[in-house]
Amino acid sequence: MASSSQDSLNFTLLREYFRKQFIDYFEKVSSADALPAQIKDQKSVYFDENLLPVVGYVLGQNPPSCKIKQTLILEPKAVSTAVTNSAQPLPGEQCIVFVLRPTLANVREVISQMRRWKEEKSYHLLFIPRRTIECDELLEEEHKFREDRVSQIALDLIPLEDDILSLELPDSFSHQLLQDDDTYKVYVQNSIQRLETVFGPIKYKYAKGDDSCQILQRLHQHRHEDPQPNQDSEIDCMVLLDRTIDLVTPFCVAMNYEGLIDEVYGVQSCTAHVDSKILHPDKKDIPKHQTDLVQLNNNDEIFAEVRNKHFDCLQKIFS
Question: What's the maximum distance between 2 C-alpha atoms anywhere in the chain?
Answer without folding.
Answer: 64
